[in-house]
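wait is this the right file?? whatever heres the structure
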């Protein structure tokens, strides 16, 4: 089984109430790959500049991730994003976006990347996502992400991508913006009606909800006392979610598999936010992830002994 991710590989500058980093490894594909590589072999398709060094490439290639399709442009600069969070870590302000070599990114997938079982279209221009779909014929499960900018500026192409994927992983505000429906459930239902079989609504520190045609499932975020930097949490969630699905791909993607994917996504994302950027996940052990999944199971169970209620 293999997983291919197409998206940004970047440098980020991030400031939160708990500290800052002037330049750290980032990008949606980076976070996704680090998380997914705990589950399966990952191929990253992206584009970086000459400033992207051997050290960064080695982090990306940790746990055997294939970086052959990360094109390095000798006379260009890597995508750079700067953001700042206030006390409400669920919302952030983008201070700077420098596309650099990412501006002319035209994903070309090698035969190995095309032959993946699971494909993740990270947040890139929807027309490019469509181009990637054209290249991958046999994929068993395709999931995607997007952002407010594309919902506003490339809605038709974005809806076309949604029509053609199996899973949509968006945050709650994006789902509302896409459908103009204030109810998250109604918004997710509308997206399901466009074609995918799975919609995941990410809700930051409040967790994530999963909707399929006939099921609803939700998990809170793993309860942490210290959150340092939420950057990349969504892509880390998506990496573990997709990784879990890849591990079960020979069987139909059943409800229990999707729920397990939600649990692993939630657990993995909780490590991401404990330190800046990829710092925590870089030295994460598989046992630590399992322990948090178990803990999540424990804290989300309850016994139902009906309480006789008073009639009015
Ligand atoms: P997340 O916090 O999960 O939304 O992911 C944050 C990552 O997305 C950062 O590492 C950024 O480098 C990357 N990013 C920010 N803006 C964009 C964009 N417009 N296109 C692609 N990637 C982006």
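ok assuming it is, sequence goes like this
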């Amino acid at each position: 089984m293999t997983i291919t991710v197409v998206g940004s590989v970047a440098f980020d500058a991030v400031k939160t109430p708990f500290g800052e980093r002037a330049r750290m490894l980032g990008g949606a594909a980076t976070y996704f790959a680090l998380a997914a590589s705990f589950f399966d072999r990952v191929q990253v398709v992206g584009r970086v500049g000459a400033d992207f060094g051997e050290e960064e490439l080695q982090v990306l290639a940790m746990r055997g991730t294939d970086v052959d399709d990360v094109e390095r442009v000798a006379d260009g600069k890597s995508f750079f994003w700067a953001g700042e969070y206030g006390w409400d870590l669920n919302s952030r302000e983008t201070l700077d976006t420098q596309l650099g070599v990412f501006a002319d990114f035209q994903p070309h997938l090698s035969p190995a990347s095309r032959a993946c079982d699971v494909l993740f279209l990270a947040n890139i221009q929807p027309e490019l996502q469509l181009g990637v779909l054209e290249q991958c014929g046999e994929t068993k499960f395709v999931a995607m992400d997007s952002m407010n900018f594309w919902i506003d500026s490339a809605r038709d192409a974005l809806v076309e991508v949604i029509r053609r994927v199996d899973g949509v992983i968006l945050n709650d505000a994006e789902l509302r913006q896409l459908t103009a429906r204030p109810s998250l459930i109604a918004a997710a239902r509308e997206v399901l009606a466009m074609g995918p079989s799975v919609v995941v609504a990410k809700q930051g520190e409040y967790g994530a909800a999963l909707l399929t045609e006939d099921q609803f499932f939700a998990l809170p975020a793993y309860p942490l006392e210290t959150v340092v930097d939420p950057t990349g949490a969504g892509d880390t969630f998506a990496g573990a979610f997709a990784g879990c699905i890849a591990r079960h791909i020979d069987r139909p993607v059943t409800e229990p598999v999707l729920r397990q994917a939600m649990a692993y996504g939630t657990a993995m994302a909780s490590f991401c936010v404990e330190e800046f950027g990829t710092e925590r996940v870089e030295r994460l052990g598989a046992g630590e992830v399992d322990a948090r999944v178990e803990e999540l199971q424990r804290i989300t169970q309850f016994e139902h002994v009906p309480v006789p209620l008073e009639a009015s």
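The CA atoms of residues 30 and 204 lie 19 Å apart. so i think its the right one actually
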